[in-house]
Each structure stands twice: as C-alpha cells, then as structure tokens.
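At this stage, I wrote out one protein's amino acid sequence and its backbone structure tokens, and that material follows here:
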Amino acid sequence: MTFEWDSAPKVLAISPCKPEAPTKPEPEVTEPAVQPARLPASAPRGPLLRDTVEQYLTERKIPYVDVNEAKRALFASAKLGSFHFVAYNKNPGPNWLIWAAHLRRQSRLDMAEWEKVFGEGFVAVVAKEKPGGELAFKTLAGDSVDIT
C-alpha cells in the first residue's frame, strides 16, 4: 500500500470579514427593585361581619355563645358546618342560631339541619350588613328578625 502526497502546497483562502461598526458600550443592566405585591384597589376593609355581629350582641346585652369556642365540646361529632353564635332571646320567641357570613348553598342546608338538631325554640338566622353599616337579620325563609 502506498500513499501519494500531493506536493503542491494547498492554500486556504480566508476572506476578510466586514469590519463591525463601532458599538457604544452597553449600559449596565441592573435588576429592578422588587416591588411588593399589591392587591387590586378596593374599598377599605372593615371588621369582619362576624366581629360586627358579636359587637352588636354584646352592646345590646343579648346573651350568646360563640360557637367557635363551644363547638369542640358540644358538637365535636357533628358532620355539619358550624354557624357562628347561639343567641338567647330575652323576649318571648325563639332563640337564634346566627350565621354571620355570606350564605352559600351548603351553608343554608347546614343551617336548616341545625334548626332540626336544636329543635323547637330555635331558628336559623342570617346576618347581613346593609349599606351604611346597619345589620339586618333574616330567617332562611327570608323573614326579618328583630334581634334586640
């Protein structure tokens, strides 16, 4: 086996590149200051409805039990969602099982069941805040209730 080498020199042609236009120095890139996340603008938030109802009951000296505190002892095995207050009517009439939040379908069903659990002498009542901050209380059927 023989190899033959071409003795003629090989030339590699390199064409010059176009010179690049002079560039301005790149400005130094800095990370923008981290801005805290902001919630969309909305009306200022006041106290929770639950707190407003509790203050209402307290100011009028209406006896009540905060269900959050009593629930563990009284209703530990209940499969129903809890309500907020059991308020005792000082006048003749039923006592109140008070729900102090937006009433969803499941909450409405749970409140109707609580009426059955407590039996005669108790009615489920939903608290709502009217424009101007005044509270309104209504039964699940939509009847107004005077809680005084």
Helices lie at 49-59, 67-74, 105-118. The chain has a mean pLDDT of 78. The radius of gyration is 37 Å.
